[in-house]
């Protein structure tokens, strides 16, 4: 690849969906915007690879260059500025806040969940330190002035990928989606109402269930969401497909890289099988996830992604590069595979005493019947996302949780308010 891996998502079309992430952190006290401004602009010094702006070179390729301008922190508004615009000093990130809520807005081209979270944690650490005049014990916080972790700013290359045959090749099954509600939300402006709800679960309650049912956090949510959809899909749909993103950074020897280069895991559920006991479904789901995250499988998927990027490099001119990506993108192009739902789990990172100041945090992305699962201290948080405003899916999901003895609280809905990109074009 000719350019930084952090540039290629910028070519994606945003006709219908934003390729950005909005991270919602609810604090336990009202947020002081002046202290937050100081904290954010201090924290960014620890992450220079995120302090960039976009330029276009002579071949029409996007290039990231350092941006020393201030990171913008603003009050939350109904209409937020676009990522990369002059109103936010051309950065690919900015922050807004209201009441007890802080929102971190960032281009998805920069990194994925495991890359975003350390940056968010450093921001919150700097804010808490300044506001309360304390230095909370937080062992996994990357503090300002600390060195990069090994490989943190490194990028993967094609020669890091194995060339062995994958041990598993999934026979593609067309995934049914909630067509009417989804299409209504995408194409009928009066019906479109992208929103999310925040589900909070006690980790002890959840892990108690996973332990006795041979599950993991992700595999349990796969089963629960498949069962939820089983109640609303028409009988003609014989299979429900769960999808999750997987970043094979460990198998490339880059466990700390911020970069987002994803393979995908798919679990196919025959409708009849969803009546099986939870242990059987959990074992099968976890087995499929383990199988498809094997380096030989995930590397084969990432190889296709990198081959796509190399083809984008061959196109001359920004217009041609965007056109090629629109047609061949592995997520939206003509050969893209989709799940009936998407469930991603970032995993637990140790917030230490910093967790005492935070109520919850979730990632917000595009998607209908999409969940992003995060964890902090003794809680699991689920951002439950949809493109229309309705309670029917969240109520069905709550029923599935209650059936297996997991209580939860639900807050929202909150408007997604995802900003799109404003990028140079020539």
Strand order of the largest sheet: 9-8-10-12-13-7-14
Derived from helix and strand composition plus strand pairing, the structural class reads: alpha+beta
Overall residue-averaged pLDDT value: 92
What's the number of extended β-strand segments? Answer: 14
Q: List unreliable stretches of 5+ residues.
A: none
**Shape type:** globular
- What is the H-and-E element order? EHEEEEEHHEHHEEHHHEEEEHE
Query: CA-to-CA gap between the ends?
Result: 22 Å
Give the percentage of residues in beta strands: 15-25%
Task: Output the radius of gyration.
Answer: 21 Å
Number of helical regions: 9
Largest sheet: 7 strands, mixed
Helical fraction equals 25-40%
């Amino acid at each position: 690849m000719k350019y930084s891996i952090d540039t290629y998502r910028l070519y994606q079309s945003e006709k219908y969906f934003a390729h950005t992430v909005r991270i919602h952190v609810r604090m336990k006290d009202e947020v002081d915007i002046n202290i937050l401004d100081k904290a954010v602009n201090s924290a960014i010094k620890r992450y220079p690879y995120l302090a960039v702006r976009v330029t276009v070179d002579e071949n029409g390729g996007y290039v990231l260059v350092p941006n020393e301008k201030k990171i913008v922190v603003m009050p939350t508004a109904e209409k937020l500025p676009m990522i990369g615009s002059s109103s936010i000093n051309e950065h690919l990130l900015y922050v807004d806040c209201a009441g007890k809520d802080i929102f971190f807005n960032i281009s998805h081209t920069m990194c994925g969940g495991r890359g975003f979270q350390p940056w968010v944690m450093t921001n919150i650490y700097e804010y808490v330190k300044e506001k309360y005049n304390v230095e909370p014990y937080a062992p996994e916080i990357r503090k300002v002035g600390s060195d990069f972790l090994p490989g943190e700013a490194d990028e993967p290359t094609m020669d890091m990928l194995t060339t062995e045959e994958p041990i598993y090749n999934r026979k593609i099954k067309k995934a049914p989606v909630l067509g009417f509600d989804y299409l209504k939300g995408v194409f009928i402006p009066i019906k479109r109402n992208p929103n999310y709800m925040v589900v909070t679960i006690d980790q002890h309650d959840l892990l108690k269930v996973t332990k006795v049912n041979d599950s993991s956090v992700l595999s349990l949510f796969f089963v629960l969401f498949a069962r939820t959809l089983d109640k609303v899909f028409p009988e003609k749909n014989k299979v429900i497909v769960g999808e999750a993103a997987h970043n094979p950074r460990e198998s490339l020897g880059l466990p700390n890289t911020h970069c987002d280069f994803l393979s995908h895991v798919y679990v196919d559920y025959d409708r009849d099988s969803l009546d099986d006991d939870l242990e059987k479904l959990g074992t099968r789901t976890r087995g499929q996830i383990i199988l498809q995250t094997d380096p030989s499988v995930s590397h084969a998927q990432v190889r296709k992604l990198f081959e796509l990027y190399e083809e984008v490099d061959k196109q001359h001119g920004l217009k041609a590069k965007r056109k090629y990506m629109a047609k061949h993108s592995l997520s939206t192009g003509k050969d893209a595979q989709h799940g009936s739902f998407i469930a991603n789990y970032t995993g637990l990172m140790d917030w230490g005493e910093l967790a005492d100041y935070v109520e919850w945090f979730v990632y917000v992305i595009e998607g209908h019947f999409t969940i992003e699962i995060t964890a902090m201290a003794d809680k699991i948080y689920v951002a439950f996302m949809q493109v229309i405003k309705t309670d029917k899916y969240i109520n069905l999901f709550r029923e599935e949780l209650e059936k297996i003895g997991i209580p939860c609280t639900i807050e929202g809905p909150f408007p997604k308010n995802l900003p799109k990109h404003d990028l140079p074009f020539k």
